[in-house]
Amino acid sequence: MSDQNMKIKLRVWRQKGPTYPGKLETYELDNVNEHMSFLEMIDVLNEKLVQEGGEPVAFDHDCREGICGMCSMTIDGNPHGPNKGTTACQLHMRNYKDGDTITVEPFRATAFPVIKDIMVDRSAFDRIQQVGGFISVSTGNAPDAHAVPVSKEKADLAFDAATCIGCGACVAACKNASAMLFVAAKVSQYELLPQGQPEKEDRVLNMVAKMDEEGFGSCSNTGACSASCPKEISLENIARMNRAYSRASFKKR
Amino acid sequence: MSTKLDSKIPSGSIETLWQKHKFDMKLVAPNNKRKHTVIVVGTGLAGAAGAASMAELGYHVKSFCIQDSPRRAHSIAAQGGINAAKNYQNDGDSVYRLFYDTVKGGDFRAREANVYRLAELSVNIIDQAVAQGVPFAREYGGYLDNRSFGGAQVKRTFYARGQTGQQLLLGAYSALMRQVGKKTVELFNRREMLDVVVHDGKARGIIVRNLLTGELETHIADAVCLATGGYGNVFYLSTNAMASNVTAAWRAYRKGAFFANPCYTQIHPTCIPVSGDYQSKLTLMSESLRNDGRVWVPKNKGDKRPPSEIPEEDRDYYLERRYPSFGNLVPRDVASRAAKKACDDGFGVGATGLSVYLDFKNAIERDGEEAISARYGNLFHMYEKIAGESPYKSPMRIYPAVHYTMGGLWVDYHLMTTVPGLFALGEANFSDHGANRLGASALMQGLADGYFVIPSTIGNYLANHSFDKMTEDHDAFRDSKEQCYKRTTQLLKMKGSKTVDDFHRRLGHIMWDNVGMARNKEGLTSAITDIKSLREEFWSDARVVGEADQVNNELEKAGRVADFLELGELMARDALERNESCGGHFREEYQTEEGEALRDDTKFSHAAAWEFKGDSAPPERHKEELKFDHVKLAQRSYK
Ligand SMILES: Cc1cc2nc3c(=O)[nH]c(=O)nc-3n(C[C@H](O)[C@H](O)[C@H](O)COP(=O)(O)OP(=O)(O)OC[C@H]3O[C@@H](n4cnc5c(N)ncnc54)[C@H](O)[C@@H]3O)c2cc1C
Ligand code: FES
Question: Would you say B356 and B339 are in contact if contact means Cβ atoms under 8 Å apart?
Fold first, then answer.
């Protein structure tokens, strides 16, 4: 293991609260180790800021292993940074070199207002889920798990859609700040499974309507969402949702 | 004074105990349910499942979590799978076998009746999850696939690639969201519970800090359920998420809820080793890897050759050598101690000498790279991202890390703590795992508690009690809020010289060195003194910056570390009093000639439950004697 320390210049978005203006502040770190994760580098910065009497950078994080979807930051213009299929918490400093300057900003979207520094409010996602992101089965009503076989192919596709971590990178990457990929992933998971069939029309109509109401933009098929998705959720899910949506609107008309 | 601990195990035959008891318990009439408010703190598997299920029954539920969304609770990170006695593989599994394995795996320190119920409910969990659209792995015929896990000799583990916790939690979260949409659950995200309020001997509400505004809020209810997870982060480095903490459980302990078996800690054998001081957490590599990976160290001390240059005859596959019948699949506590021993004896590998190899070479030769990638692709990918080396090319380096805490709030058969109306679910309670938890059993327990146990037992409690009308300005709430306010102010006022993380790291070192994988009297005694003085130093010299009335991550951390500084001492005390080795608790003084854990069933066949006696008096240790009517007490052997 090499213990080479790098000098890194960080430009970090600082904003005291939702109603305050924000700006990029520059900090210099001279002890960045290549094995550190990106968030551990921010920890080091924060410890230094606390020591010096400053205010540490507020940022969301929890699992630090790419699964909870809590970390959310745009690094040099890319949500979660430069690596494909990687959350900010899984990005390691070996991707950078001595002397680099890195800019860190919050996920930007009207529907994700900034709370403080690089923390944003993504509760709109929960609200979309509340209008249809479920199968209405109360505890105790379930038949035996083997009562309904599901083809492996469908089950695998449903799983792929269900791996969405709800981080919001898709929204931050989209020039329209659309939440199509997020919603499509959830709709697809249920659309692909027999258990999801009874409620499928209401589900897709309600979730899409809520998405619009929450202020997410519309989809213009640029694919930036999927490209920046740390779980590499496929654009096919959007196509599947669009088909489901047309079918449902036709039927419900 | 063991009379204080009534486990309320109903009488009767263990096979029908729960069914019969469900009939015997009182019910709340349907139209009365909505008059009862139930608070559920935590939205992991236990909390989300419990909150949703109680709301479905008609109770008015208030649900709280620290994160910005309930979906981000630490349960999301569970990888390997969930056990259930479905016997879909026809390999001889049954409820009884799962029950038996769990009691034995827990080194005979769990309550039989609870474990039996858990095994029984395991099958319903799988049904429920599939009905919710949880995409478990399936075989080509369309039926569910199973794997063997964590030393089980049957294939009873259901999984969703390496993301089982995520899929199960998203299932429970979807059920919770459905109820929030129906307005039967009120959701309070970004809230941290700082105290439980007790009035007239009953838990009647909580005080939380709104993590966005800093406001201290009062919430009133007829019952409070804590599903706040485990306390592994007392070691600073663990596989737990950063926000995992003991605060809710600890505050409950200080209000009269006994804390049971705090010293039972699970150290997981397969984690990515520590790489430097800046390290903030450790990453687990699922134990399923041990199904195909072989653990070894060089036979010669200090052999610095790269692994590819060490020939077979110079490798010690020490688990296979020491445990021929279980080999690499011995339970976690056994595998972890063996790794520690190999490293302590000077055979460890890597720059620090604190790791062992987990090698897939034979498996890749046997089954092909594609097959191995289908099984472990995402784990290999994760390892490569963190460690910068590909496990397809060279063996993984692994080392044990703190992972799970079997100890927690003492609960009776109804999951009620010693404070009436205060319940504990999931990892937060002292659980059904005894002194050691088997792989894929925490998800099972959290969901059994949440979906099936608490919805029944809460009704019995509510139906048997009457409740005074309470308002926010009641003395009990006012006092409690005042205490929380004082504490927060005190933390911010100190303006000391050392960061909160600095204290947390130092506490972690004390814990890992003395209350970790191997413990002894001397180390534990000094840990008690060292933690005490660290705590005093904290309360005079910690530097907590920022303000009380806005987002303040440092203040949040400070409150949690302050509680860890009390808990750590209790863990050491508990470990010191337990003069035996069992499961995750290994006392060096008590081992067999071969270095295996040596239990003392005559003196320690009990759960130890600690009662808080005030800051200036030592806590009191109570016992719940454990009776084994079904599983015969035996020395665990995996040879
Ligand atoms: C990396 C990893 C892998 C694992 N893999 C497996 C596996 O394969 N199989 C298995 O069976 N088990 C596994 N486990 C164990 C299992 O994941 C946990 O034991 C289980 O998920 C705990 O669930 P819980 O509902 O009790 O608590 P958690 O999921 O920890 O949830 C705690 C909740 O409480 C909230 N909370 C905590 N404190 C407060 C407070 N003061 N105020 C308000 N809210 C609070 C949190 O916000 C959160 O919502 C794994 C654990 C780890 C760390
Ligand atoms: S912190 Fe959980 S995904 Fe990054």
Answer: yes
The two three-digit tokens of residue B638, written as one number: 């995996």
- Say whether residue A19 is in contact with chain B using an 8 A CB cutoff: no
Integer CA distances (angstroms), B331 to B101, B163, B252, B324, in order: 11, 21, 32, 13
ipTM over 0.95: yes
CA of B241 to the centre of ligand 1 (A): 8
Interchain CB contact of A29 with B (< 8 Å): no
Domains identified in chain B and CATH numbers:
268-403 (3.90.700.10), 475-600 (1.20.58.100)
Of all protein residues, the one whose alpha carbon is nearest to atom 3 of ligand 2 is: A66
Work out the number of other CB atoms within 10 angstroms of the CB of residue A238.
23
Full set of structural domains in chain A with CATH:
5-116 (3.10.20.30), 122-252 (1.10.1060.10)
The reported pLDDT for the residue numbered A3 is: 56
Residue A22 phi/psi, 5° resolution? -125, 165
Per the structure block, which two tokens stand in for B130? Answer: 């599939």
Q: Cβ contact (<8 Å) for B545 and A50?
A: yes
Question: pLDDT of B544-558, one tens digit each?
Answer: 999 999 999 999 999
- Contact partners, residue B253, CB within 8 Å, separation at least 6: B259, B409, B610, B612
Note the pTM of the prediction, 2 decimals.
0.97
The 3-class SS string of A52-92 reads CCCCCCCCCCCCCCCCCCCCCCEECCEECCCCCCCCHHHCE
Share of chain B above pLDDT 90, in %: 90
Residue B7: half-sphere exposure toward Cβ, Cα within 13 Å: 24
Specify burial of residue A66 (Cβ count, 10 A radius: 0-12, 13-18, 19+).
buried
* Pairwise CA distance, residues A109 & A107, whole Å: 7
